From TrEMBL:
Keywords in alphabetical order: Hydrolase, Protease
Keyword Cell division: no
One GO term of the biological process aspect: proteolysis
Organism of this sequence: Halolamina litorea
Gene Ontology molecular functions: peptidase activity
Gene3D superfamilies per the UniProt record, alphabetical: 2.30.42.10, 2.40.10.120
Protein name: S1C family serine protease
Domain PDZ: 238-343
Signal peptide: none
């Protein structure tokens, strides 16, 4: 975001501060700033960012096959969801000035549900910056896009959860997602989830239920999109194990001191972890429920504590690359040990 846009958004805070010492003229309503544009931070946000958000229309041989949203990541690059442009023959983008332009697909990544498109934007459209860190729960945010094909729409809410592990529209696991209660509907997919400062906190990917929507994190977007622009694809790290969360019953079955870590249900032959890590081989009954036993329990990667399956996925997604050798700390047969595993590349799902 350039200086003028940041100054524009920052001015909202100055205007709000100025209202504190104001009184209404005699005979006028006493609610200061009710219709004052300086007291409308979302209106100011929308005015600043809307030229950079697009409605996407996707065509195949049979005509229009779907719509979605996108936003300007670089001077001539749009970001959207993989599932929005999957199998598209032609993609057209409509900017806020009403102009339609044809977008060229640069690359897609089904695992993160992200895609990059080349486009010739109008001069008033400026790239939107990615947020450096996940915003705290309670941070005010806005989803801008084209829900149900209604271009130029804005819905508001807050960040209602961090580091969520979700299943994508195509049933791939995405770690580190941002949860929001801003209304998200079909057509919002690929649009930005924005802070009041105009930074992209995530890329809207789906609605999870009433008052629950999810966005691919800015951190994962920052890793994936440059690779899509340069190479057309992104290679994800691959440990090659089947995992389960450590529940209290599973912990009891495996004589663990606490219900934390990630249980290895299986280590398939030929996977990067094969021959180093160990999967479960037996089952016992605990309180009437069958529980796997004998598998390693991952409790740390490179000395970073791992307490949940989400933390495991987030670390692999954001801190590692294929070919890296990482230290994996596990509990095996009641003892803690650290083993080295060289990560592979997640297989192409297609």
């Amino acid at each position: 975001m350039n200086a003028s846009r940041r100054q524009f958004l920052a001015a909202a805070g100055v205007g709000l501060a100025g209202l504190a010492g104001c009184t209404a003229p005699e005979g006028e309503p006493s609610v200061a700033g009710l219709d004052n544009p300086e007291d409308q931070p979302f209106a100011r946000l929308y005015e600043a960012v809307s030229p950079s958000v697009v409605r996407l229309r996707v065509y195949d041989a049979g005509g229009v096959r779907g719509e979605g949203s996108g936003w300007l990541y670089d001077d001539d690059v749009l970001v959207t969801n993989d599932h929005v442009v999957d199998l598209a023959d032609t993609v057209r983008a409509q900017f806020a000035n009403g102009e339609w332009v044809t977008a060229e697909l640069l690359g897609t990544d089904p695992y993160s549900d992200l895609a990059a498109l080349s486009v010739d934007p109008p001069v008033e459209a400026e790239p939107l910056p990615l947020l450096a860190e996940q915003p705290p729960v309670g941070t005010r945010v806005a989803a801008v896009g084209a829900p149900l094909g209604l271009e130029g729409s804005l819905t508001t809410g807050v960040v209602s959860g961090q580091n969520r592990t979700i299943s994508s529209v195509r049933n791939f696991t995405i770690s580190g997602a941002v949860q929001t209660d801003a209304a998200v509907n079909p057509g919002n997919s690929g649009g930005p989830l924005l802070t009041l400062g105009g930074d992209v906190a995530g890329v809207i990917t789906q609605a999870g239920g009433e008052n629950i929507g999810f966005a691919v994190s800015a951190a994962l977007t920052e890793r994936v999109i440059p690779e899509l622009i340069e190479n057309g694809q992104y290679e994800h790290s691959y440990l090659g194990v089947r995992i389960l969360p450590v529940t209290p019953l599973l912990a009891e079955a495996n004589d663990l001191e606490a219900a934390r870590g990630v249980y290895l249900a299986a280590v398939p032959a030929g996977s990067p972890a094969d021959g180093t890590l160990r999967g479960g081989a037996e089952t016992v009954i605990v309180e009437g429920s069958p529980q796997p036993t004998g598998g390693d329990v991952i409790v740390a990667l490179d000395d970073t504590p791992i307490a949940t399956t989400g933390q495991l996925g987030t670390y692999l997604a954001l801190e590692t690359s294929p070919g890296d050798t990482i230290s994996v700390t596990v509990i095996r047969d009641g003892e803690e040990r650290t083993l080295d595993v060289t990560l592979g590349t997640r297989p192409d799902p297609r």
